[in-house]
Amino acid sequence: MKSITINGSQRESVGKVATKALRNAGKVPCVLYGGDKPVHFSAEELSFKSLVFTPNVYTATIELGGTSYNAVLQDIQFHPVTDKIIHVDFYQLFDDKAVTMEIPVRLVGTSKGVMVGGALRHNLRKLRVKAIPANLPDFIEADITELEIGNKLYVTELKNEKYTFLHPENTVVAQVRMSRNASKAASDEEATEE
Questions:
Q1: C-alpha span between 138 and 162 (Å, rounded)
Q2: What is the DSSP track for 57-115?
Q3: DSSP for 153-194, written as a single string
């Protein structure tokens, strides 16, 4: 999985006044959980741009004065009016400890049902996956070539030994449905045959 480096500085005071001063200076207060004790730090707001505003999923390497931590974005809070990032929580990654992440789904191939006029529905764009950090994929490939009109692609068909899905087995990832145009064309054909 790709990683993004975030350079930050450790925070000594974590009260309201210090946090407000940080935000006024264009920095975002952050907390790194998962280690022995939480690590409070701050980083420039622009350094989160490629981590937050993207459909892809990345791990983060947090650099704090010579010490680096591997982490994953756990929670983010935005200002209700301006949409500025006001707080970020990270969870520290360990090589032997499984972590849960939402991984994007990439549909591959052209469905047979779409070729004859069906409509493709991409029900889930991200799937919740549990794995050790080394086995986390950048994306999950879902082959839709064999889907005909009325067929569904279930999460069980995407199984992999490296990670486990945290969804029920009957979860639909994608499906091909009869489109309005195809059903209208079919009813027109029936009318002309009669």
A1: 13
A2: --EEEEEETTEEEEEEEEEEEE-TTT--EEEEEEEE--TTS-EEEEEEEEEES--HHHH
A3: EEGGGG--SS-EE-S-TT-EEEEEEE-HHHHHHHHHHHHHH-
pLDDT digit string, tens, across residues 98-145: 988 899 999 999 998 888 888 999 999 999 999 998 888 889 999 999
pTM attached to this predicted model: 0.76
Backbone φ/ψ region at 117: left (φ over 0), alpha (ψ -120 to 50), beta: left
Cβ atoms within 10 A of the Cβ of 159, count? 11
Neighbouring C-alpha atoms within 13 Å toward the C-beta of 112: 8
Reported as a single tens digit per residue, the pLDDT across 2-17 is: 889 999 988 887 888 8
| Predicted local distance difference test score (pLDDT) of residue 191 | 57
Per residue in 35-51, is it b (16+ CB within 10 Å) or e — as a string?
Answer: eeeebbbbbebebbeeb
pLDDT in tens, 75-109: 999 999 988 999 999 999 998 899 888 999 999 99
The residue among 147, 143, 150, 151 whose CA lies nearest residue 112 is: 147
